[in-house]
Predict the 3D structure of the following.
Amino acid sequence: MTDKITQTDHDPFILGGHTFTSRFILGSGKYSLDLIRAAVEQADAQIITLALRRANEGGPANILDYIPGHVTLLPNTSGARNADEAVRIARLARAAGCGDFVKIEVIRDAKYLLPDNTETVKATEILAKEGFVVMPYMYPDLNAARDLANAGAACIMPLAAPIGTNKGLCTKDFIQILIDEIDLPIIVDAGIGRPSQACEAMEMGAAAIMANTAIATAGDVPAMAHAFRLAIESGRQAYLAGLGRTLDKQASASSPLTGFLHD
Amino acid sequence: MSNNKNETNVFNKSILNTQVRQDLEMERTDHMAYLPDMEVLDSGIDRQVLSMMESYDPASYTADDVKAALNHDMRGPEDFAALLSPAAQPLLEEIARTAQSETRKHFGNSVQMFTPIYIANYCENYCIYCGFNCKNKIRRAMLDPEQIEKEMKSIAATGLQEILILTGESRSHSTVPYIGEACQIARNYFKVIGLEIYPLNSDEYAFLHGCGADYITVFQETYDSGKYETLHLSGHKRCFPYRLNTQERALMGGMRGVGFGALLGLADFRRDAYAAGCHAWLLQRKYPHAEIAFSCPRLRPIINNDRINPMDVHETQLLQVVCAYRLLMPWAGITVSTRECARVRDNLVSIAATKISAGVSTGIGSHSDEIKEKGDGQFEISDGRSVDEVFHDLLARDLQPVMSDYIYV
């Protein structure tokens, strides 16, 4: 037991050549800016996403003024409807001093906010060549994930459910396929509504969790950030510990059906 | 077509004064006929909207229909119809709570702030309820580019990053190149530029998009063709189908977002709100990338007719309409204008609206003291709070003011 705990203590999360200890990527949208610092602290988050479109440098309600300096910024390209727009927003983010990390969001569906995998692959290819640490948000499709990996993505960010729905792991089986088949960190993004769902995704072998709405719409934002942190850590530890055997409908028989065989 | 010249075709009698009564007796053109140079679309959405409105009978819905609509995860026109019906009114508290929950899910506590800038008030239309109408004797003005810049500079100094440029509906005064120049000036001061101008063809929208504008709002006023005909006596705006297809032409021209609205109080507000919602809903299906927004203006008094009122659309009915829009399209933006007072606006953004104007004046040249020749406003505003006041009032309600929510790329 002690060995296993030691294992999680030395379980760095490596992303695009950068090392993190936290596996919780926190969103900064949909809640009051003056709660961001407390949420970051309670989440123990080292990466926080921000929509570049919300930046208002030098003006009031500028989100950049509220993010603690030690946290890695992960600007996203929300608002982009195609690869070209995503690339331009990513470049603007870098020019604005937001660093090299970028989360690609290409969405041309206002109702469900589902990502466009094809355009996301195109943007990933361009930005990876420009030295960005590209983190693409995508619909969990194995072929698209392979294309993203080949295009130079630093990780794959499949959605668990449509953004903001808090519906949990609706795409669980397909995320598991990505975890099993793609040699990049799989970060479950969008749709996670409860700490228990974050924990389950981590138990499956997800490398990290990105969550926003579940925390932003909670009664107590910092407290929910803390709850997610505990769940993510717990799920990771369970994954590293190796989940125990689960019984299916036909539990192991004490007298095997094949017990009569003598050869 | 037949023109109904008597007054019975006007629902809202408060609009009528001596001049209007006389003018209603004049011969009028066919309001369904396109004028030369108007782009004709045959997408069918206009017909679908009118057909849906035609078959909408608000009185046929029951409380059970309303409850069923509230229980649905995704709602369609049939749910929307129930939510707008008289049967929904006793359930308004429950409706408002569900609407608030949907708003929080999609927008969190964010509320976008913006202000309108009226750069001209010349108008060639005779809309009998509007302060800008060509027959109304008001001070007309049109800002030149230098004055536009002064106004925008003053507005930008308040911290706002989003601006809505408005003109009266006069192609000959406020030409498309003139509006384009205003957009280009605005690009130097603001991140988000919207337009509320006369309807254009798709290539003109493409031009203005290239100048920096990326969303447009056009109110249909009323979707009831007969009432529309009686309310818009002359000018380009008289052409009902051209106005009805405006949002689609704007999307074809590359605009990111389009706004819809019926002027509540002109005619049967339930049927008008239903048509506006169906219009947006149908266009969203055809253009899934489009960012949809609703405005919920109620009729207001104007200069030279202070009797105009929104008839049977009281605050209760306004809230019902706002919530119904929210529940039909939870992802859509909803704007509340300064036609409403601070109390109503602050409560609406706490429940379902997502965008609020501040520091508003509907007059021409009213943001800068340096501009001496000012033009009169379109209507009387009810909320004169400054940007700073609205900002802090939102914070006090645990709402997060958002100055910028888009990057023009």
In short: The first helix of chain B runs from residue 18 to 23. The interface with chain A takes residues 104-110, 159, 161, 191, 256, 284, 288-292, 329, 331, 391, 395, 398, 400-407, 409 of chain B (CB under 8 Å).
